[in-house]
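FORM 12-B: Structure-to-Sequence Request
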């Protein structure tokens, strides 16, 4: 069994915007990891240089690391342009990189064992499930992947180790990030080409240009997560807003079990809608880990 030490850990970016306190979301993620993980619960975060992280959040993080080489997302609302820096910033030899608007609800120690013992140096999620645990097959948000035969990469959850080929991949991702409109124009069909920067598309394009097939980005059915974007949940499109909470109730039990509708959630939850992380959820986790 892996030890809970500095060789392995989780890493996320937490760059605050005018409307979202991402350090608070990262704090919720850290609490869920501390409560759910039996071995590895270390979480380090990358922040905008000069950011002061409130002490009520800071204690939960392994390391708080200022983003190097200037803030490429300074003028961006989504703050995605620094994601290629993850392997250069992570303090761990083996890293699971996450989006910070996630909660972990069960231990994934067996995932670490398979990822580290496997031959793959980088592994991206390329299959996600809906709130009922059913594989998402609808490409409503991913028509660019279908049309251009891109690897179906979800950068919200991925594993990497620090090797030369991994750094090469992220260096190419850096070039695409810094010149994304040129690369998108060159390699993506006009009908589905995004008009904004997307790490999923940029990293998938990097994988394709590197001639990295799906064995590079997936070990069977892991890693994966529950993706709560509304239009892939099997609901009637004509009655679905982008806020999935308008469609279905949720409940976090006093012992930390999360139900969406009648379905108990077991996989990491990418809740997507930032308002989902209420003070009640944070208070519940704080109480649970203080026991």
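FORM 12-B RESPONSE
SEQUENCE OUT:
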């Amino acid at each position: 069994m892996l030890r809970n030490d500095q060789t392995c850990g989780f890493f996320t970016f937490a760059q605050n915007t005018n409307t979202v306190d991402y350090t608070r979301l990262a704090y919720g993620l850290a609490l869920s990891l501390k409560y759910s993980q039996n071995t590895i619960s270390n979480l380090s975060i990358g922040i905008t240089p000069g950011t002061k992280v409130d002490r009520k959040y800071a204690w939960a993080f392994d390391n708080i690391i200022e983003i190097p080489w200037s803030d490429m997302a300074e003028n961006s609302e989504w703050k995605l342009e620094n994601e290629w820096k993850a392997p250069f910033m992570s303090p761990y030899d083996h890293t699971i990189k996450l989006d910070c608007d996630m909660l972990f609800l069960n231990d994934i120690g067996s995932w670490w064992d398979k990822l580290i013992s496997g031959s793959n140096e980088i592994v991206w999620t390329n299959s996600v499930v809906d709130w009922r645990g059913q594989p998402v097959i609808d490409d409503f948000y991913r028509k660019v992947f279908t049309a251009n035969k891109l690897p179906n990469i979800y950068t919200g959850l991925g594993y990497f180790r620090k090797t030369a080929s991994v750094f090469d991949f992220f260096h190419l991702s850096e070039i695409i990030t810094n010149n994304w409109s040129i690369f998108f124009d060159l390699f993506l069909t006009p009908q589905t080409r995004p008009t904004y920067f997307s790490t999923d598309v940029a990293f998938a394009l990097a994988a394709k240009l590197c001639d990295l097939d799906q064995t590079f980005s997936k070990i069977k059915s892991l890693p994966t997560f529950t993706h709560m974007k509304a239009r892939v949940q099997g609901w009637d499109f004509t009655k679905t807003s982008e806020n999935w909470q308008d469609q279905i109730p949720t409940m976090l039990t006093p012992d930390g079990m999360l139900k969406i509708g009648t379905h108990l959630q077991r996989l990491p939850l990418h809740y997507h809608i930032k308002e989902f992380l209420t003070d009640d959820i944070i208070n519940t986790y704080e109480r649970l880990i203080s026991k």
